[in-house]
């Protein structure tokens, strides 16, 4: 069995599941939010035998998770404990589920993981990514991660007006925070960085933003360019995501030295899958920004025709296809 750990509203997970089903591969879209009200989990030990792991849905379906041979750590949810309203009881039940599920992942040690949960967690740390990328020879922007307003002010002033961007560690559909340039309107709010550290980086001018989707050594690279006459392009591209609908997206040929360093980065981070954000400057230099271990890829696949979902499905199924 193949396990896709996500939820039904994740269109990327559904696309890969569809590919697997077309290949007659047994697959379970494993939504942890079905627990505890719509499903149960049981791990049973017998003397001298491997544990049996049973996932049972309220509708009567049973899945033997001890037979999982590959798993995609895509967008794991959490058990839905909304009906546990007492604060102490909620903390207790959440901890109990956390212990049981972390034990479950380790019991699936014989499975092939995209990505192993422990490695995925460690690799997602942006501060560490920048250091490793630089050590491997990738260019990274001057960066300050700080909760010290004075350090931030000095960093911004050293760059000059409009030459610094700021961004958060996390960004979700529920809490959207795009990367923005630091300008005079931000100065009165500088003390708020004491509440939580913020990432500040030198602004890197763009000829194109480059999204590289890595799947087990395959690198699907695409360049994202705004219309030179658009308002966003005239202002200087900071974050392509809000203007993606107006951008040209096409397949991109990465220079071989960059490809080698990106493969080395994925290997160093212990990742099978990752969505890597680069920027190519007008001078042809490539700057590394980050790796998203569960980054989206369908917007690239739809507009370039690159078979990324199929590559993910093939890896999970253990299928090798000639280029």
UniProtKB/TrEMBL annotation:
InterPro entries: ATP-grasp_RimK-type, MvdD-like_ATPgrasp. Residues 124-316 form the ATP-grasp fold RimK-type domain. It comes from the Bacteria. Pfam families: ATPgraspMvdD, RimK. Residues 1-116 form the MvdD-like pre-ATP grasp domain. PANTHER family: BETA-CITRYLGLUTAMATE SYNTHASE B-RELATED, RIBOSOMAL PROTEIN S6 MODIFICATION PROTEIN. This is ATP-grasp domain-containing protein. It comes from Lysobacter firmicutimachus.
């Amino acid at each position: 069995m193949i396990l896709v750990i996500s939820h039904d509203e994740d269109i990327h997970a559904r696309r890969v599941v569809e590919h697997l089903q077309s290949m007659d591969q047994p697959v379970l879209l494993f939504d942890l939010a079905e627990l505890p009200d719509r499903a149960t989990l049981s791990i049973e030990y017998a003397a001298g035998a491997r544990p049996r792991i049973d996932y049972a849905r309220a509708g009567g379906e049973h899945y033997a998770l001890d037979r999982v041979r590959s798993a995609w750590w895509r967008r794991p949810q959490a058990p839905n404990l909304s009906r546990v309203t007492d604060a102490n009881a909620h903390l207790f039940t959440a901890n109990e589920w956390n212990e049981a599920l972390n034990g479950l992942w380790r019991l699936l040690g014989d499975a092939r993981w995209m990505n192993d949960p422990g490695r995925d967690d460690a690799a997602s740390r942006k501060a560490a990514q920048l250091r490793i990328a630089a050590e491997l020879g990738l260019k990274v922007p001057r960066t300050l991660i700080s909760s010290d307003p004075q350090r931030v002010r000095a960093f911004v002033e050293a760059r000059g007006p409009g030459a610094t961007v700021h961004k958060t560690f996390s960004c979700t559909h529920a809490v959207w925070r795009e990367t923005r340039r630091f300008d005079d309107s931000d100065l009165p709010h500088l003390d708020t960085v004491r509440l939580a550290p913020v990432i500040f980086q030198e602004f890197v001018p763009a000829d194109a933003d480059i999204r590289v989707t890595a799947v087990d050594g395959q690198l699907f690279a695409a360049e994202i360019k705004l219309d030179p006459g658009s308002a966003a392009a005239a202002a200087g591209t900071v974050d392509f995501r809000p203007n993606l609908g107006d951008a040209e997206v096409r397949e991109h040929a990465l220079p071989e030295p960059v490809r080698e360093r990106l493969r080395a980065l994925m290997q160093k981070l212990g990742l099978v899958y990752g969505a890597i954000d680069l920027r190519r400057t007008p001078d042809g230099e490539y700057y590394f920004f980050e790796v998203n271990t569960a980054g989206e890829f369908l917007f690239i696949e739809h507009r370039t025709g690159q078979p990324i979902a199929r590559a993910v499905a093939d890896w999970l199924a253990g299928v090798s296809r000639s280029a």
